């Protein structure tokens, strides 16, 4: 999928580009792309979206001005944004989760996002609207954790493999453990990294509460218990990851922590080591 060229027609000419997966920091401002009442800002965001996902154009470097021309052409823009959705959603599915058995604490059950969603009878989260504009992430909003049924235990730990490394993309991390967003630790993180009433430094100009991508990145940095066995020290640790890793972890969080689960055998998984049944949620 990462090897498939993105093809579109611009000014009557068929063009071909190598897809590129931006990092979290490059794509920070891309979530909620269509959520703007300022046309000039929307045009800039769409040009940025096109520029980020096209690694070249017919083998030549893509200048920003040409990205603007592509973004201004409705058919070319639609083709590029649709290719981006397919690329990002396809990569997101390369991640995997392992749920630790709460009975023996040895056995783990491996599930993909699609398998986890199916177990929980939950819909998959679309990453974009119908025009191909990226939607805000789940973690861009604050969520209360649902109560869990007492009839069946839940997983004791949620380990994951990141899709970027699995797909062979350059990435500083391959996996980790996903905990929950603790409200007290989240408040501390806001105080530390984006205090209210203080302008962000130039090198982190989008580290503000108003930026949906940053809200999700900051909350995720609080929720992650570890990345490659290292503690996660703030949102900067997540910025070099390919953006598909953020999309994966955002949906994994939504499914495993926020989706209500019923205590039924159909919704449960079985430990391969001790045969205990448990719910594939935290
Ligand atoms: Zn077990």
Characterise this structure.
This protein is of the alpha+beta class and 282 residues long. The chain has 2 domains: 6-91, no CATH class; 96-278, no CATH class. The chain is 34% helix and 12% strand. It has helices at residues 24-27, 39-53, 64-72, 74-92, 113-119, 163-166, 183-193, 212-223, 243-258; strands at residues 6-10, 13-17, 96-100, 108-111, 158-161, 175-178, 224-227, 269-270, 277-278. The strands form 3 sheets. It has a 5-stranded antiparallel β-sheet. A two-stranded antiparallel ribbon has the order 1-2. Strands 8-9 form a two-stranded antiparallel sheet. A hairpin with a 6-residue loop joins strand 8 (269-270) and strand 9 (277-278). Helix 2 (39-53) packs across helix 3 and helix 2 (39-53) packs across helix 4. Zinc ion binds at residues 101, 103-104, 107, 271, 273-274, 276.
Q: Which ligands are bound?
A: zinc ion
Helical segment count: 9
Largest sheet: 5 strands, antiparallel
Straight-line distance between termini: 32 Å
Shape summary: globular
What share of the residues does DSSP label as strand, in percent?
A: 5-15%
Strand order of the largest sheet: 4-3-5-6-7
Order of helices and strands: EEHHHHEEHEHEHHEHEE
Find the count of extended strands (DSSP E, 2+ residues).
Answer: 9
Specify Rg, calculated over alpha carbons: 20 Å
SS class: alpha+beta
Mean pLDDT, all residues = 95
Low-confidence stretches: none
Helix content: 25-40%
State the domain count: 2
């Amino acid at each position: 999928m990462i090897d498939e060229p993105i093809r579109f027609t611009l000014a009557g000419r068929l063009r071909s580009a190598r897809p590129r997966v931006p990092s979290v920091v490059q794509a920070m401002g891309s979530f909620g792309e269509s959520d703007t009442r300022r046309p000039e800002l929307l045009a800039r965001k769409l040009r940025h979206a096109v520029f980020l996902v096209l690694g070249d154009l017919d083998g030549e470097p893509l200048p920003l001005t040409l990205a603007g021309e592509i973004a201004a052409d409705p058919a070319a823009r639609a083709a590029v944004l649709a290719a981006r959705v397919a690329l990002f959603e396809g990569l997101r599915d390369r991640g995997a989760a392992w749920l630790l058995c709460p009975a023996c604490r040895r056995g783990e059950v491996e599930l993909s996002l699609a398998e986890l969603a199916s177990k929980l009878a939950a819909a998959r989260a679309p990453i974009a609207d119908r025009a191909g504009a990226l939607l805000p992430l789940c973690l861009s909003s604050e969520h209360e954790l649902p109560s869990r049924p007492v009839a069946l235990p839940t997983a004791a730990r949620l380990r994951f493999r990141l899709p970027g490394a699995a797909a062979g993309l350059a990435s500083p991390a391959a996996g980790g453990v996903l905990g929950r967003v603790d409200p007290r630790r989240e408040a501390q993180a806001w105080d530390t990294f984006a205090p209210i009433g203080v302008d962000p430094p130039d090198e982190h100009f989008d580290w503000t509460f108003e930026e949906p991508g940053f809200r999700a990145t900051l909350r995720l940095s609080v929720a992650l218990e570890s990345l490659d066995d290292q503690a996660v020290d703030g949102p900067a640790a997540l910025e070099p990851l390919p953006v598909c890793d953020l999309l994966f972890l955002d949906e994994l969080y939504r499914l495993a922590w926020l989706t209500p689960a019923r205590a039924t055998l159909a919704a449960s998984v079985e430990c391969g080591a001790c045969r205990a049944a448990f719910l594939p949620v935290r």
